[in-house]
From TrEMBL, chain A:
Domain (26S proteasome non-ATPase regulatory subunit 1/RPN2 N-terminal) ranges: 5-340
Biased composition (Acidic residues): 890-914, 984-1006
Keyword vocabulary terms for this entry: Proteasome, Repeat
Domain of life per record: Eukaryota
UniProt-recorded name of the protein: 26S proteasome regulatory subunit RPN2
Region (Disordered): 845-919, 977-1006
26S proteasome regulatory subunit RPN2 C-terminal domain residues: 792-963
UniProt GO molecular function: endopeptidase activity; enzyme regulator activity; ubiquitin protein ligase binding
Basic and acidic residues compositional bias, start-end: 850-859, 878-889
Function: Acts as a regulatory subunit of the 26S proteasome which is involved in the ATP-dependent degradation of ubiquitinated proteins.
From TrEMBL, chain B:
Protein name: CSN8/PSMD8/EIF3K domain-containing protein
GO cellular component, one term: nucleus
Provenance organism: Lipomyces starkeyi NRRL Y-11557
Protein keywords: Proteasome
Keyword Translocase: no
GO aspect biological process, one term: proteasome-mediated ubiquitin-dependent protein catabolic process
Residue span(s) of domain CSN8/PSMD8/EIF3K: 99-161
Superkingdom assignment: Eukaryota
Keyword flag Amino-acid biosynthesis: no
Length: 1006, 194
């Protein structure tokens, strides 16, 4: 066999005068370039000469050889340049490393140049247009991807390269029955595989593939496209595409419309569904309405309501009812009320330890109580501790009253009545006339009606207007409360009248009222980016002497720019250049809120820069904290980013790092974050410890020992810090807050800055956290954190908005997602144990009972689970027995009983847990389902009630289809509102909805 | 039939070379090389036919020698470069080349005459051990040794006297070599006098 050992002979040919010999040499060199590139490299100038020679017939070949040589020399830019010059000789279909590298290089540079072209103003577009050769390569790549059915690849590149036409081409191709990767996936889907065979099936499949691609585009553009203008363009086009389908996925459309903030289109969608007036379309409309309520602003909803109001189809009234937001709140409130698992012992212990005379401790306990019971309406702690409550002075009283609002958050039906004794006005004489509790109660009223303020806004506004008349320092307090209340209740309504009234308070130049007014102006105009408001607020911030007002305005301005992304850049630049550190502080929050959840690199860079360069500690602290907002969609990135900052010499930066972790990793239990936070608990600076405590609680919210083993020790640390004599007040305050946060809302809520249903930003939560962070300056703002508490439940609601009793399946060990044990057991159990331990007969009886139960359960299990490994179950009797224990634990409300038996087995259980086949268990409707648990949840199609929306691991309120019909009786869970209605009214309302006797339900009430 | 004409033209070239009509050779060679490239034997590749390779090699050797007689250094170097893969696989190409050692020796001499000592030694290293027993190769090797020693008189004698030169091709380099020697000697004198 003849093989070459050197390319010298070929290279010598390049010097030949005869062109055909040179071509011959190039042809051979082209084949051998990867082997002899080192030798050819010496001649590359000669080859380039040939390429540039006009008379040379094969200049493209020369370019190709040069490209290969440069590739081997790792000069990729040069290589790409020559590869492009080689034109069609550069074969994209080859699977060599060279081709792949160069193609990806081409795509990179194409993306870069086309992004520039996209961002450039129209007149310059010709100048920056990408090289036609480059376009050619990318085009060829696109068409190959589409031919081969690699649509997702093409779409990914097209998204980055701002090529709407290519995206559309891909989707159209998929709809025409082109192969996709997605097809395999959708084949697994039970809904689709059930389809009829044949042509119909094929059409269905390709439609599903297309729909999946649209979903993919949607998700990709949400997660990865940083440019807002382009993203909106893509999303809008996707909506058009989906609408053209025969059987559009309304939920996807709704999701996209929420992102685009296109209320009119969303309204039209609901109208269409209502007009269609089939059972399914109505259910879908209701589900969308619920989704909209949970994920959009009041302004958006108001627009949708306006559109739907015109319709006169049967479902309209129901849809409007849902859109009013009342049913959502009712259902969530009921969930929190029924499942309240607050551990009062922790709270009482903290109360006893922390001296109430000290106002910071009084505040701490107030907020802990507020968080623990947020939304559960359980205000028993206040009622039991009236004497303690009476020790609250001045602003503590304000906070304490406001805390009542947190506890009753969402209790629309009774909120007003509950707060009436404290409210100013007609009952002023009986309330002891304290302006502080009056102001606090107005704030509380706002919190109760947070984001659903229609009913109370007028009432609150009265005090904004009147407050100025009463004058003096006391009037200020009422105004302060009223302004905060209006801000929370009227959040994102963009109501100009309210704005003007708030502005009047601001212009009265009273520090206390002005601060709240500035903040409230931002809240009311949230995310509007209104030029007028911006100008006025900024101007006043420059004029006033009061730091408090400047701070209120600074945060208010930041709120104005919520979610504005690039549109906020000019303002950010302006604010960051301000002399006044408070305005720079506002500028940082503007970055945080404008780029919230985008992961935008420019924003991150800017924050990191300020974090290490600003002269003011507050600004630095804020900029580190803000990282948490920008990166909360990607929590794992944060620990690495703030690792160094968390060891900064500057305590403010450390504090910021702690909170950035808390914000971004909230509810995740991420161990990397914990590793950074734990050392900070021993930080020499008190407020850093405070930050670490709060962040730990935010991260560990709703975690139990099974999911994150460290949680128990962290809880102990909280208690220890509170009880320690020499600990600083700041840290104790933080520990008390932490205790409140970690078990917030009766252990049934989590902090989630993203809406699970739609994947959009959870506006209320983000604003809640952002304002909460201002507690550094003003304790009453702590209450804002309650806005970010999201109930974690799956609540099935029937079309008549009743909550039927049914169950779904959770394919995991029940202990994994259990509530953490109450502390009561440990303290009160010791004596009890002695009393029960002697009764051997009972133990035997118990064992007998258990055995039979176990057998029963086993039999059940065998029926339920298709016997994957029956032998394994028999062989390992121990584990399966324990499985039953676990199930019992879930059902019975007295885990104390089991504890004794479980005690010995606990260690063994842990060991075999992994090997064991997980059996799963049934979960009742409207019970706690943790975010991490969602992926184990499944609905049986044999159940009477099935969700109308395809279940994609998103909790919240699901509209369920009733396969039997509304007339067949079934037990319901009554909402708190219904329970509170007087009996005669109950009947009336009931008749209006369903024509069946209500007393049946009262019988079966839980 | 390109094969046919190729063979006749190859024979034509051989006879012209034998007749020492180098001008004619230089006209015959380029089209022949094109034909070689068309037959895919200009460079021995995996796909080339072994029998034809010997013919190609002979043609290239004639080309190299012609270049010497025409005193075209660059052309000669190119031919040598093109011949190198043929020599690298000489055990496969039959019959073996008669001119191989001579051409290598000539290349060494050319390098020496250009005072490119580094390349000279690199080339020498690639040769097999018994190479310096070869009469042709021994010539440039001894010349180099004398030059290094400074025995310019011996060099002078070896290059100017016809009897010392192995074949007439070597004589052609003589003028160049003499010049090199003169330059080196001048340099030496300058260094000594300074």
């Amino acid at each position: 066999m003849a093989t070459l050992t050197s390319a010298t002979s070929l290279l010598a040919l390049l010097d030949e005068p005869d062109q055909s010999l040179q071509v011959y040499a190039l042809k051979n060199l082209n084949q051998l370039a990867d082997e002899f590139w080192a030798e050819i490299a010496d001649y590359v100038t000669k080859i380039e000469e040939l390429y540039e020679d006009d008379k040379f017939p094969q200049s493209k070949l020369a370019a190709l050889v040069a490209s290969k040589v440069y590739y081997n020399l790792a000069e990729f830019d040069q290589s790409m340049h020559f590869a492009l010059a080689a034109g069609d000789l550069f074969d994209l279909s080859l699977k060599t490393e060279y081709v792949e590298t160069i193609v990806s290089k081409c795509i990179d540079s194409y993306i870069r140049s086309s992004q520039e072209a996209f961002d450039a103003p129209l007149k310059d577009q010709v100048e920056v247009a990408p090289d036609p050769n480059l376009v050619d390569v990318v085009e060829r790549m696109f068409s190959r991807c589409i031919e081969e059915g690699e649509h997702k690849h093409a779409i990914g590149v097209a998204l980055e390269a701002r090529r709407l036409d290519t995206i559309e081409a891909c989707i159209n191709h998929a709809f025409q029955g082109g192969l996709t990767n997605g097809k395999i996936k959708s084949a697994d889907n039970p809904l689709l595989s059930d389809g009829v065979n044949g042509v119909d099936d094929q059409a269905k499949k390709s439609e599903a593939a297309g729909a999946e691609l649209i979903n993919y585009v949607f998700e990709a553009s949400m997660a990865l496209v940083a440019n807002k203008r382009w993203r909106d363009e893509v999303l809008l086009r996707m909506v058009e595409l989906v609408e053209r389908l025969h059987n559009p996925d309304y939920f996807t459309v709704a999701k996209i419309l929420v992102h685009l903030n296109a209320a009119d289109k969303a309204g039209q969608n609901i109208l269409d569904l209502l007009t269609e007036n089939t059972e399914t379309s109505l259910l879908i409309a209701y589900q969308i309405a619920f989704d909209l309520v949970s994920s959009t602003s009041q302004e958006f909803l108001a627009k949708v309501v306006q559109m739907v109001e015109g319709s006169s189809t049967p479902g309209t009234s129901q849809a409007l009812k849902i859109l009013s937001g009342v049913p959502t709140l009712d259902v969530e409130l009921t969930f929190l009320y029924d499942n309240n698992k607050t551990d009062l012992l922790i709270l009482n212990k903290t109360k006893e330890t922390l001296e109430a005379r000290n106002s910071i401790f009084h505040n701490a306990v107030t907020f802990e109580n507020a968080f623990l019971h947020a939304g559960t309406t359980a205000d028993g702690f206040f009622r039991d501790n009236l004497e303690w409550l009476s020790r609250a002075m001045n602003w503590s009283k304000f906070s304490a009253t406001a805390a009542l609002g947190v506890i009753h958050k969402g209790n629309l039906s009774q909120g007003m009545n509950l707060l009436r004794p404290y409210l100013p006005g007609d009952s002023a004489s009986q309330a002891g006339g304290s302006k502080y509790s009056q102001g606090g109660s107005l704030y509380a009223l706002g919190l109760v009606f947070a984001g659903h303020g229609k009913d109370v806004l007028d009432f609150l506004r009265k005090y904004i207007r009147e407050g100025s008349n009463s004058g003096g320092q006391e009037g200020e307090v009422v105004q302060h409360g009223a302004a905060l209340g209006v801000g929370v209740a009227g959040m994102a309504t963009c109501d100009d009248d309210i704005y003007e009234e708030l502005k009047n308070i601001l212009f009265s130049d009273s520090a206390v009222a002005g601060e709240a007014a500035g903040l409230a102006m931002g809240l009311v105009m949230l995310g509007s980016g209104s030029e007028k408001a911006l100008e006025e607020m900024l101007q006043y911030a420059h004029e006033t002497q009061h730091e408090k007002i400047i701070r209120g305005l600074a945060v208010g301005i930041a709120l104005l720019m919520y979610g504005k992304e690039e549109a906020a850049d000019a303002l950010i630049d302006q604010l960051l250049d301000e002399q006044d550190p408070i305005l720079r502080y506002g500028g940082i929050f503007t970055v945080a809120l404008a780029y919230c959840g985008t992961g935008n690199n420019t924003a991150i860079k800017r924050l990191l820069h300020v974090a290490v360069s600003d002269v003011n500690d507050d600004v630095r602290r804020a900029s580190v904290m803000s990282l948490g907002f920008i990166l909360f969609r990607n929590p794992t990135a944060v620990p690495r980013m703030v690792e160094l900052l968390s060891e900064s010499y500057n305590p403010h930066v450390r504090y910021g790092a702690a909170l950035a972790l808390g914000i971004s990793c909230a509810g995740t239990g991420l161990s990397e974050a914990i590793e950074l936070l734990e050392p900070m608990l021993k930080d020499p600076t008190d407020f850093v410890r405070q930050g670490a405590l709060i962040s730990l609680a935010m991260i560990y919210i709703q975690q139990n020992e099974k999911t994150t083993p460290k949680v128990t020790s962290v809880r102990k640390t909280f208690a220890k810090i509170i009880s320690e004599k020499h600990e600083d007040a700041m840290a104790k305050f933080g520990a008390a807050l932490a205790q409140g946060i970690i078990d917030a809302g009766g252990r049934n809520v989590t902090i989630s800055l993203e809406n699970r249903q739609t994947g959009t930003l959870n506006m209320k939560a983000i604003v809640g956290v952002a304002v909460f962070l201002q507690f550094w300056y003003w304790f009453p703002l702590t209450c804002f954190l309650s806005l970010s508490f999201t109930p974690t439940a799956i609540i099935g609601v029937r079309s008549d908005l009743k909550i039927p009793e049914f169950s779904f399946f959770c394919n995991a060990k029940s202990s994994k997602f259990d509530y953490p044990p109450k502390t009561e057991e440990q303290t009160s159990k010791a004596p009890e144990k002695v009393a029960t331990a002697v009764l051997s007969t009972t133990a035997r009886a118990k064992a007998r009972a258990k055995k039979s139960e176990k057998e029963k359960a086993e039999a059940e299990m065998e029926m339920e689970v298709d016997e994957k490994e029956p032998t394994a179950i028999e062989a390992e009797e121990e584990p399966s027995k324990m499985e039953v224990d676990g199930a019992e634990k879930e059902q019975e409300d007295e885990p104390a009983e089991d504890e004794e038996e479980d005690y010995d087995e606990e260690i063994a259980e842990d060991e075999i847990e992994d090997k064991q086949d997980i059996k799963g268990y049934k979960v009742q409707n409207m019970s706690r389902v943790l975010p991490a648990q969602l992926k184990y949840i499944s609905f049986s199609r044999d159940e009477r009630f099935t969700p109308v929306k395809k279940f994609r691991s998103s909790g919240g309120i699901l509209v369920v289809r009733d396969s039997v019909g509304l007339r067949v009786k079934t037990p319901f869970i009554k909402t708190v509102r219904e329970r509170n209605l007087p009996p005669e009214e109950q009947d009336e309302e009931d008749e209006a909805l369903v024509p069946e006797p209500f007393d049946y339900e009262t019988d079966t009430e839980l | 039939m390109p094969q046919k004409t190729f063979e006749t033209r190859a024979r034509e070239l051989a006879s012209a070379f034998a007749a020492k009509d180098y001008e004619r050779c230089s006209h015959l060679l380029p089209p022949l090389k094109v034909t070689l490239s068309q037959l895919n034997i200009l460079v021995p590749l995996l796909s080339s036919e072994l029998e034809l390779l010997a013919v190609a090699r002979d043609i290239l050797e004639i080309g190299a020698l012609t270049a010497i007689f025409l005193r075209d250094d660059l052309l000669f170097s190119r031919y040598i470069a093109q011949l190198s893969p043929f020599y690298a696989m000489k055990d496969k190409i039959q019959p073996p080349s008669l001119n191989e050692k001579k051409l290598i020796a000539l290349r060494l001499l050319l390098l020496l005459s250009k005072n490119d000592i580094a390349e000279f030694h690199t080339e020498l290293e690639t040769l097999e051990d018994e190479a310096d027993k070869d009469i042709y190769i021994r010539y440039p090797v001894t010349l180099e040794r004398w030059l290094m020693e400074g025995s310019y008189d011996k060099v002078w004698k070896a290059t100017t006297q016809r009897s010392e030169v192995p074949t007439e091709e070597f004589a052609i380099f003589a003028d160049v070599s003499v010049q090199t020697v003169q330059v080196m000697a001048d340099e030496l004198l300058v260094t000594i006098s300074v």
